[in-house]
């Protein structure tokens, strides 16, 4: 069949990279794609949030299956429109995508279903939010209710910082409509982890575990970003803890969504905080994403040994109960190379050299997240997060060594990266992070 992937980031490049290997895929397209995705698929100049344009293209090209990468078209109802047109699609409909589209909705669902999460309050008026902030325990977390491209979360150590975050959203219009309601929640201290599951409206199929690094700079310092790197598996996520997450968080969520008349199909990403306790860590839900994480997708798919396309189709068709996946025992690690200034203002158009040589000489795979070709064919930075340098190895330390060897071969004066991706997994044995290996 002909397959269309929607999106233009590193996640979509990883999806195209995996789907291109499926014997079921006779032709692969990506809308709008990027310079790296063009190696795997035919790029189509239709924006990811152009619902009408995407449906029109899928109809005219005879697309048999659509995989929606980013959250915005899911919240806009792209899957609903495609299915109504007779085109099979992977991802939740708009009614179910609200799990990511509104943090307040997810918090209320957690209350109803007894899902462990941080205590919270929801506000759309500045005076009410400020009165609440005068009494809460610090630090406190302020979140824009809607989609804010991974930049809507502030961890405030002082009341002044919390007030500024609330005012920026509610009055300063920093996040537009996404910030006209805010969530103020307690700060949970522990270790973060990511759990992914395919969901078919009834059954959940757990995928491999991963951890990402949200802060911009080494040592988990600096502002929150969309993710500066990731690794898989996450050693902290033991089989027993994974099963606990399934029993207390994922399965209750899927059941509650079905009971609400919002059956969930697609991939469900649970961002977790593992809070230490006398009987070991307890998982609390931080957030849901209704799509593959980015950059977690870039470390999950290189470890997948099964054909990805039938798995996505099984989720859409409601037959995951009889489905299974095979995973490599190798580890995978991804380092994001971002434009200087990210997640704040950054410049586009700087030249990147050496990507193909880095892949050839080290065996790493470079997933493109924000690139384009110049008129002369040069590779140009065209986003905040630009490249995801990824490798597998027998251990996280092996994968990390390969990745940083590749990073050091890429020449990009306008970019930066963290040099300590994977530090949590390596801290026990003292393996140095980001050490040059060439």
List keywords for this structure.
438 residues, alpha+beta, Rossmann fold, Dna Ligase, domain 1, D-amino Acid Aminotransferase, Chain A, domain 1, 6-stranded antiparallel beta sheet, 5-stranded parallel beta sheet, 14 helices, 24 strands, disordered C terminus
Low-confidence stretches: 428-438
CATH class of the largest domain: Alpha Beta
- What is the CA-atom radius of gyration, in angstroms? 21 Å
- Give the helix level as a range of percent: 25-40%
The structural domain count equals 4
Q: What is the H level of CATH, i.e. the homologous superfamily of the largest domain?
A: ATP-grasp fold, B domain
Record field, number of beta strands: 24
Distance linking N and C termini: 43 Å
Structural commentary:
With about 450 residues, the chain is of the alpha+beta class. The chain folds into 4 domains: about 90 residues, Rossmann fold (3-Layer(aba) Sandwich), CATH 3.40.50.20; about 55 residues, ATP-grasp fold, A domain (Dna Ligase, domain 1), CATH 3.30.1490; about 130 residues, 2-Layer Sandwich (D-amino Acid Aminotransferase, Chain A, domain 1); about 100 residues, Glycinamide Ribonucleotide Synthetase, Chain A, domain 4, CATH 3.90.600. Helices cover about 30% and strands about 25% of the residues. The chain has 14 helices and 24 strands. The strands form 6 sheets. Strands 12, 15, 18, 20, 23 and 24 form a 6-stranded antiparallel beta sheet that branches. The chain has a 5-stranded parallel beta sheet with strand order 3-2-1-4-5, with helices on both faces. Strands 6-9-7-8 form a 4-stranded antiparallel beta sheet, sandwiched between helices.
């Amino acid at each position: 069949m002909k397959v269309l992937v929607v999106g233009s980031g590193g996640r979509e490049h990883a999806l195209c990279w995996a789907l291109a290997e499926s014997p079921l895929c006779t032709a692969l397209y990506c809308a709008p794609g990027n310079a790296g995705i063009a190696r795997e698929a035919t790029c189509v100049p239709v924006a990811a949030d152009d619902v009408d344009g995407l449906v029109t293209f899928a109809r005219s090209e005879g697309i048999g299956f659509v995989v929606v990468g980013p959250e915005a078209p899911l919240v806009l109802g792209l899957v609903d429109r495609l299915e109504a047109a007779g085109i099979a699609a992977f991802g939740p409909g708009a009614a179910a995508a609200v799990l990511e589209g509104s943090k307040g909705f997810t918090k209320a669902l957690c209350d109803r279903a007894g899902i462990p999460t941080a205590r919270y309050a929801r506000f759309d008026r500045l005076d009410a939010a400020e009165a609440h902030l005068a009494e809460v325990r610090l630090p406190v977390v302020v979140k824009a209710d809607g989609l804010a491209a991974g930049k809507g979360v502030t961890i405030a150590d002082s009341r002044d910082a919390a007030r500024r975050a609330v005012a920026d959203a509610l009055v300063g219009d920093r996040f537009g409509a996404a910030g006209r309601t805010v969530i103020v929640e307690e700060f949970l201290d522990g270790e973060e982890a990511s759990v992914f599951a395919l969901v078919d409206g009834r059954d959940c199929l757990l995928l491999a575990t991963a951890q990402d690094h949200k802060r911009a700079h080494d040592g988990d310092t600096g502002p929150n970003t969309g993710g500066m790197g990731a690794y898989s598996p996450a050693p902290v996520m033991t089989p027993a803890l994974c099963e606990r997450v399934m029993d207390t968080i994922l399965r209750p969520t899927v059941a509650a969504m079905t009971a609400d008349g919002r059956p969930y199909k697609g991939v469900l990403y649970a961002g977790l905080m593992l809070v230490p306790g006398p009987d070991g860590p307890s998982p609390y839900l931080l957030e849901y994403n209704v799509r593959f994480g980015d950059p977690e997708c870039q470390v999950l798919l290189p470890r997948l040994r099964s054909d990805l396309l039938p798995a996505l189709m099984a989720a859409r068709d409601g037959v995951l109960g009889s489905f299974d996946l095979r995973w490599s025992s190798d580890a995978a690690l991804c380092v994001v190379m971002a434009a200087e200034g990210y997640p704040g203002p950054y410049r586009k158009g700087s030249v990147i050299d050496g990507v193909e040589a880095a892949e050839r000489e080290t065996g790493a795979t470079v997933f493109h997240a924000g690139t384009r070709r110049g008129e002369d064919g040069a590779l140009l930075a065209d986003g905040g997060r630009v490249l995801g340098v990824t490798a597998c190895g027998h251990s996280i330390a092996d994968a990390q060594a390969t990745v940083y060897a590749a990073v050091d071969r890429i020449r990009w004066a306008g970019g930066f990266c963290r040099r300590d991706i994977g530090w949590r997994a390596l801290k026990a044995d003292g393996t140095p992070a980001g050490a040059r290996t060439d």
